[in-house]
Amino acid sequence: LPFKVEHRSRNLAKLHACILKGCEIPNTLSRDCQDLLTRLLEPSPTKRISMQEILRHPFLVS
Questions:
Q1: Tell me: the pLDDT tens digits for 23-45?
Q2: Residue 20 placed within a domain
Q3: Which domain holds residue 59?
Q4: CA dihedral in degrees (43, 56, 37, 22; nearest 10)?
Q5: Which residues have C-beta within 8 Å of that of residue 61, sequence separation ≥ 6?
Q6: Is 42 helix (H, G, I), strand (E, B) or coil?
Q7: Is residue 39 part of a domain?
Q8: Considering the domain boundaries, does residue 5 fall inside one?
Q9: Which residues form the Protein kinase domain (predicted)?
Q10: Cβ neighbours of 55 (radius 10 Å)
Q11: Is the pLDDT of residue 5 over 70?
Q12: Which residues contact 5 (CB under 8 A, 6 or more apart)?
């Protein structure tokens, strides 16, 4: 999992919090990459980016 913690349950709790509250996307990534990650991690399935939109996203097209 993406977080370095001693216990798996803490890792899952951090992941759950990240999903619900939104993750901090590093500003060292390109704006297109930040946008794609933000849209991929959208908690609401109805608001989340579609597969067609992903394939047309500037980050993948460039």
A1: 788 899 999 999 999 999 888 89
A2: no
A3: 25-62
A4: -30
A5: none
A6: coil
A7: yes
A8: no
A9: 1-60
A10: 9
A11: no
A12: 11, 14
